[in-house]
Specification:
- The longest helix has about 30 residues.
- This protein has about 425 residues and is an all-alpha fold.
Length: about 425
């Protein structure tokens, strides 16, 4: 904590003096140290406080480099919010983790159970529903995004209200397959082959939708589930996945009609010769912090919970009866760059206090999950942990817990977990 405070103060001071590289470097150094400290202490590659430290603080350090002309000097309130987001998470995690550790000592370990059979039937159900929903959307809308040309935002139009949640539920199946095989798989080879086939189908759906994010989400969650279940991962496995994902990412970028001149025109890098494989991930990280600063500087009034309750308005259909519940503008610095950071809606609703309280809640939940990891027996618990870990890794990306899809995933995992518990 002392290291972070020193590095954060240095980063803020360097930013005020116009030394962007030194400002960014100080925060990235803090991020590396904080993650290493947690990993060395626990041996957990997916330690939730370590992941949040690495990617929230590290992402801020990347943003402080100011490599794009879109970026401006941040408001002191923005700096305060980013500081509180980390400090409150860190402290809340520490307080709750001590209580969770005591609770774990009292509860002890539960007997291992076999969940292969319920997992198998759950994967069949989710795959069938997802594939049927995808085909319905394709027929109803009259197109499949992958086969369109010259339409940069085809995926955004490929949504039938209520149905698309079912379509994208396919991203959970590869993670379920990981636990299925880690538990030994089925004694019948054809069932194992069917599980592999279902995983392939569920990876093809995001490709057909031209959704790079859903594809990355499916693969990353599966990898994180594997790490959460086994406690380790071989570097070779990570490299193979990265090598397989890279060409798919490029293909989907081309299929979305996002060529290099188009992207460079959006990113407005100060160095126009910067390679796209550097400028694209840079802006996808850095500009989210800029959008938060836009919110801080432009927001006329807070919404007191309405923004963060968007999943309620969406999943219950209330948004159709009361449109004003979702009619608030989004404050961003460029129309095409709409990702926001994890704390955007918390500030939108309650300002600095909202960021602090929301961060405390996240830290407490993360500590509880971290304390339960060693005693999880229901396979869906590992998926919950893996998904939450991914949200910590992508804390700079968007407002995960104000997204109805996030809660739909949680609901699906809860239903499958309940089924596994009673039949496993």
């Amino acid at each position: 904590m002392i290291v972070y405070c020193i590095c954060y103060a240095a980063g803020y001071l360097m930013a005020r003096l116009g030394q962007a590289y030194l400002s960014g470097a100080s925060l990235m150094l803090a991020a590396v140290y904080l993650y290493w400290h947690e990993y060395r202490r626990t041996g957990n590659l997916l330690h939730l406080r370590g992941l949040f430290s690495a990617f929230w603080v590290g992402g801020q350090g990347v943003a402080c480099l100011k490599l794009s002309r879109l970026q401006t000097d941040w408001s002191p309130v923005t700096w305060l919010c980013f500081f509180l987001a980390f400090i409150c998470f860190w402290c809340s995690f520490g307080i709750i983790s001590r209580a969770a550790a005591d609770d774990g000592m009292r509860l002890g370990r539960r007997r291992e159970r076999d969940f292969v059979r319920p997992l198998y039937y759950s994967m069949i159900a989710v795959t069938a529903v997802s594939a049927a929903a995808f085909m319905f959307e394709a027929v109803y809308l009259g197109f499949v995004p992958l086969f369109l040309r010259g339409v940069p935002h085809a995926y955004s139009a490929f949504h039938v209200t209520g149905v698309h949640y079912l379509t994208v539920s396919c991203v959970l199946v590869p993670s379920m397959a990981v636990v299925f095989f880690r538990q030994g798989g089925s004694r019948r080879p054809w069932r194992n082959a069917l599980v592999v086939a279902m995983s392939v189908i569920c990876l093809l759906i995001p490709i057909l939708c031209v959704s790079r994010f859903q594809l990355i989400f499916a693969v990353a969650t599966a990898l994180f589930t594997y790490i959460a279940y086994t406690g380790k991962v071989r570097l070779k496995t990570v490299l193979i996945l990265a090598a397989a994902m890279l060409p798919l990412y490029v293909i989907l970028t081309v299929a979305r009609s996002h060529d290099i001149p188009y992207l460079n025109g959006i990113f407005e890098m100060k160095n126009p010769a910067m390679p796209i494989f550097i400028s694209q991930p840079y802006i996808y990280i850095a500009n989210n912090y800029e959008n938060f600063n836009c919110l801080v500087e432009a927001l006329p009034a807070h919404t007191f919970g309405i923004r963060m309750l968007f999943p309620v308005w969406a999943l219950t259909g209330m948004k159709f009866f009361f449109p004003y519940l979702i009619s608030f503008p989004i404050y961003i610095d460029k129309e095409e760059l709409t990702t926001l950071t994890l704390f955007y809606d918390a500030y939108y609703d309650f300002g600095v206090a909202g960021v602090a309280v929301f961060s405390c809640v996240l830290g407490g939940v993360a500590a509880w999950l971290d304390g339960r990891l060693g005693r999880m027996r229901n396979p869906m618990g590992f998926l919950f942990y893996a998904q939450f870990a991914l949200y910590m890794v992508l804390s700079f990306f968007t407002t995960w817990f104000s997204n109805p899809t996030t809660w739909f995933y949680f609901a699906v995992m809860g239903l499958v977990g309940f089924y596994c518990y009673w039949t496993g």
